[in-house]
Amino acid sequence: MAAEPAWLAEGRRHIWLPYTQMATAPPSLAVAATEGTRIVLADGRELVDGIASWWTACHGYNHPHIRTAVAEQLARMPHVMFGGLANEPALRLAKRLAGLLPDPLNRVFFSDSGSVAVEIALKMALQFWLNRGVRERHRFVSFQGAYHGDTFAAMSVCDPEEGMHSLFAGALPEQHVVPLPRDEAGIAAFDAYLAAQGGDAAAVIVEPLVQGAGGMRFHGPETLRALRAACDRHGLLLIADEIMTGFGRTGTLFACEQASVVPDIVTLSKALTGGTMALAATVASDRVFEAFLSEAADDALMHGPTFMANPLACAAANASLDLFEREPRLAQARAIEAHLGEALEPVRGLPGVVDVRAHGAIGVIQLDDMSRIDWLKARFVEAGVWVRPFADIVYVTPAFTIDEADLARLTDALVGVVTAWSRER
Question: What is the pLDDT of residue 2?
Fold first, then answer.
């Protein structure tokens, strides 16, 4: 094994890692390069990336079309403020996103991370009512098992019990967090809850089809249709958090398409730039946007991230959308779903395996015990793949461009490691 690079040894004394107990965590792996669906480590090993850098690198790493677009934009104008100034990549991207989303989702507000996109969506929904003189609608309805980000308002609409944010109970705004309705009884209970206690709610926020970081839990299109109908009955806005599900991950460009549901606000990020750099968008309907139009300056949306509409990031996003137009990304996602559904099936029924499931380019093995999570992570690296289990699941969300050999290597590693884990429990 090659000695670790000096930058890793020296920098480790100063860095603070995400979601990591720094007192006990094993050292991070030093990465020298990425290419396609591979991570090249500083010691020369190559890992098949099973999660596409938190499912952002949907076209694989270093796609030449995105790289060229970013290089050309870098030479022309890497950044310019968006207050009072406009740049072509941002306005072109706004038009394209509005064209891809159904009417009346026509107004795009850019930011630089998914959590901030959610903060903006919540702020829009709240001020939508304030601008109409309705002050009592100041809370939100979200769901058990939900995850919407790590900033304060976003944390408040995450699952308060099972999520990673329970430590902050009491410091966060209290929201209506209820079971996600998955059948007729659940839908009826949800509607009854809104009728009895939803009078102070501004909006319902949901991750369509897949609750991502809450455990990769799936639900059907009928749930989304029921939520839209309930919001309409009770006069609430519907926010679809498509940060994880958007741009093909569930097999359609946006998850809401599978339910033929049009939300009032949509949040986008993750794969928006093909995993190249940070960018997010909060897209509002004409009705929401028009509530901010008046002669009163205070009715405007007072929000403006410094790097919003960054031309470099918008150039990357435009290039990523080019690839969705030119290359068969949705067909690739569906092919990955078929492979995952078949290839992961052998672990179903093993001791300790709770469930095996796949939807779009997402594969999940749910376990009954994660006390050996570091053992699992190490075995995956030994098998030549990068897979990062969390909560009670081992999951994969590979790039849509992964070839058959690497996809087979990935699923073979999952089956082999989980089988060994089950045998050694």
Answer: 67
